[in-house]
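ok so I'm stuck.
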Amino acid sequence: MGVLLYRVDDRLIHGQVVVGWGRYLKINSILVCSDRVADDELARTMMEMGAPADVKVEVLRPREAAAKLNGDAFAERSAIVLFETPADALRLLDMNVKIEKLNVGGMHFGPGKRQIMEGLSVDEEDCRALCELAARNVRVYFQMVPQARPVEVISKLPRDL
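replied:
not stuck anymore, here's the structure
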């Protein structure tokens, strides 16, 4: 038990996470690590409502999340940790949270982003954070649902961003 999946997904809690990954991993806890959501009561409430009643949802700022993850708060849980951006995952790594693998789910197209795969768009900051994570020996792979074949993200990043 403990954290079974670290995932970047800009939609955070939604069907692929709850039904796809949650049921597959048999989780009982989701930790959303986001300053933006932690500061927004409506967004926090929507995250809590998006999970089944038997799954505990916590929304914490990265520093609070790191303190819990570096302690034993998740030792008895089966959890998924969600980030909106790769930079958020890198912040936790900088706070000594051990992340061996980072699942990249949906990162959608928007201003300044380039689509590199279906469901995966990146900008310069995303590329920088993903490369830094890989340089620190974190396996960074794209996999929307457990049944899909994982694809190593680093090989897909554009070199000219």
